[in-house]
């Protein structure tokens, strides 16, 4: 120790320089560590922001599908501001029921400024505004409307009959016989030049085949399953009256998700998939 002190005393200038270099190295290392930590924190923040954006986008998309709401253009908003009472009444009529063709495989569900078109169980939401309505007699005591729709896919002309059905197969009908309301368009709907008929959906369909085990997986409330399935079928398959459980269940224990299938009693025996979130008690359907 004495020798080290003596050496340091003899080389005092060198010792000071070495000490300064050591301090500079230590400070530099500390600053580098701080910068790395800061960079990692910023990267994680950016990733989280990106994830939050993706989540928000998915949530917004789901909300739009569930509520049937989409963004309107400025032109559509201006048209809507100018609606008269007759146009508003017409929209109320269109929105009061589901419109269906091909035994419910193609449906239309209108709201005030949007409509949901479902093709084989897959819904698509569209915005719209009605820019013009012309009303004439159909010759059978009813009325025939020619409606100009401004939608997110362009301008379309739709023919609406309010009860006589004279615009479709009128030669085979007599006044008051099999009165129905229809919507027809050559461009706006998936089924071109085909009459979508007013479909009064079944309020509560019958769910068959479920046992106590699957009911327990669905939160123990069979009525909740029936209600959720009835609401979905009312829009996508309004003519369906029964759904039969297919007796196969997929359990995702980690995420608490139950997946199973039901077969509907339409002529095509459509099979739909039911997904149940145990944490939220929410049902969703595809098919």
Provide an overview of this structure.
The protein has two domains: 74-199; 206-286. 37% of the residues lie in helices and 31% in strands. It has helices spanning 2-10, 12-67, 74-81, 85-95, 212-217, 222-236, and strands at residues 98-101, 106-110, 114-119, 122-137, 143-151, 154-161, 182-185, 196-199, 206-208, 242-252, 257-264, 271-277, 282-286. A hairpin with a 4-residue loop joins strand 10 and strand 11 (257-264). The longest helix has 56 residues, at 12-67.
* Tally of structural domains: 2
Structural class: alpha+beta
Structural shape: elongated
Q: Based on DSSP secondary structure assignment, what is the total number of beta strands? A: 13
* Order of strands, widest sheet: 1-2-3-4-5-6-7-8
**Which regions contain 5 or more consecutive residues with pLDDT less than 50?**
49-67, 165-179
Order of helices and strands: HHHHEEEEEEEEEHHEEEE
Radius of gyration: 33 Å
How many angstroms separate the termini?
A: 86 Å
H/I helix tally: 6
* Global mean pLDDT: 78
Give the oligomeric state: single chain
Q: How helical, in percent, are the residues?
A: 25-40%
Report strand %: 25-35%
Major sheet description: 8 strands, antiparallel, barrel
Biased composition (Low complexity): 48-58
Region (Disordered): 42-65
Protein name: PepSY domain-containing protein
Keywords: Signal
